[in-house]
Amino acid sequence: MLIAGVQPVMLVLGAVAAWGYLRRARRTPGGWPWSRSASFLLGILLVLALTCGPAGHRAEQLFWFWLSQSLALLLIAPLLLMGGQPLQLFSGTAETWWRDPRWARPRRAVASPVLGAGLVPLTCAALLFGPVPGWSIGVAGVGWITQLLLLGLGLVVAYPLIAIDDTLTSTALGLAVGIGLVELLLDAVPGIVMRLSTHPVTNFFDYRHPVAGQPSWLHDQQIAGATLWCVAELLDLPFLILIFRRWISADEREAVFIDASLPDPGGAEDSRPWFMSDPQLRDRFR
What we know:
single chain; mainly alpha
């Protein structure tokens, strides 16, 4: 997957992204919060640490390490990158295009947490029980594309969780919370299957690089299953917390809007009980 310990595609993209982000941040009127810059740069460093150097080599030798690398690219690094609010920083370019009315439907689809809640289990299933693991370490180009796709899908999942602009209704966010709770239970199934299976569930072991002290394929697969079983459950919790917080905020925002649209209770007519305005009931209470 790597050439002399370097993943060239991710290295170039990471350098360009960091340079462009810092350049734009310095030119932002009034300054740009250092915490957002730190979050974005930490995300870049994490991506490079996962895909280049010893971590990249180790992922070619151990299935559980490759799986952990993939989960980090999908679920952890994107949160740090989107925590830097890059779309808001480039508000004159990317955000303007993103909020074009012609892209309203795709924007609503991507901004919905329901999409992310459905993408994560489907992506994990493709990673674990298909030919992707073996191809990604056997063919360099496939490995680079796999890492880019994982990071891209992770950004789609992370965007609605961290985006500042919130146009989602409390109903949509409540549905996302429900799906997230179901997903929290279903995420354990692949890990349990891998942990208890006595035959290979992936072709990774046909391509992995042999090294001294390497565990057997069965032990390696069992460790991967236990890792997915435990770590994936823990990684779901921050997502649920973020969605739940946005659900509460959306409910409060809608409550303010509803209160503002109600009639002014200051008048005598409006302050009367509702049944006093009903022709069939008001005579009974005089």
